[in-house]
Amino acid sequence: MRELLRARLDAAGVPAGAEQLEKLAAFHRLLTDANARMNLTRVSADPGEAIDRNYIDSLGPLAHLRGAKNCVDVGSGAGFPGVPLAIFLPETRFVLMDSLSKRVEFLRGVIEELSLNAEAVCLRAEEAGRGALREAFDAATARAVAPLNVLSELLLPLTRVGGVAVALKGPGAAAEAENAQNALAALGGRLVAIEETPVPGRDWAHTLVVLKKTAPTPEKYPRRVGVPEKRPL
């Protein structure tokens, strides 16, 4: 698995040291074992596809997170993109946030086993954004969580002014970004970039939507749990 990881990361232009390869391989083992018991996420039986779809794909935001002292990954689920990013950015403190306790317990085990500079918390982003974690992070990430007009209300209240929020989106990213303009204006955010992140040899990839936090989020946001999804800005 380590050699396949090295080959695929090299093809994607992502340098990896021995420790990073070992931790990614260990994460794959932990995820595969746990997934058989509790159905955390889809893990392909083909190791190459698993590497491309989960690990390389999760590393797309790397360039936007370098230098961040801390980062919150909202809706981490089985650890994507937070765990691979934490492996490759050991100087950044990661908070892996999910609302499902079984996922958080799995993530806590991964963090301990891999000695990651991270913690996992069982919390909804709407609650976190109104509490002690409000505007506490240099960066925020999310993959496959919600449409961007909803997701902006989850990520931007957690991000400090001057920080970035990076969403891994599908092929409709540009349309989502257009639909999120009202939300961004209301929440103190600005669209910085929409970037394709191709995976060598694959005809699928996520698109990064990069947001800059330019002003404090008004006190009334985020609204209570469930409201951003039901009534997007």
Describe the model.
- There is one protein chain.
- With 233 residues, the chain is an alpha/beta fold.
- The chain has 11 helices and 7 strands.
- A 7-stranded mixed β-sheet has the order 3-2-1-4-5-7-6, with helices on both faces.
- It is globular, with a radius of gyration of 17 Å.
- The protein starts with a helix and ends with a helix.
Short synopsis of the structure:
The protein has 233 residues and is α/β, with parallel strands linked by helices.
List the helices and strands and how they pair.
Blueprint: H1 2-11, H2 18-38, H3 47-58, H4 62-65, E1 70-74, H5 82-88, E2 93-98, H6 101-114, E3 118-122, H7 125-128, E4 137-143, H8 148-155, E5 159-169, H9 173-179, H10 181-187, E6 189-196, E7 207-213, H11 227-230
Parallel strand pairs: 1-2, 1-4, 2-3, 4-5
Antiparallel strand pairs: 5-7, 6-7
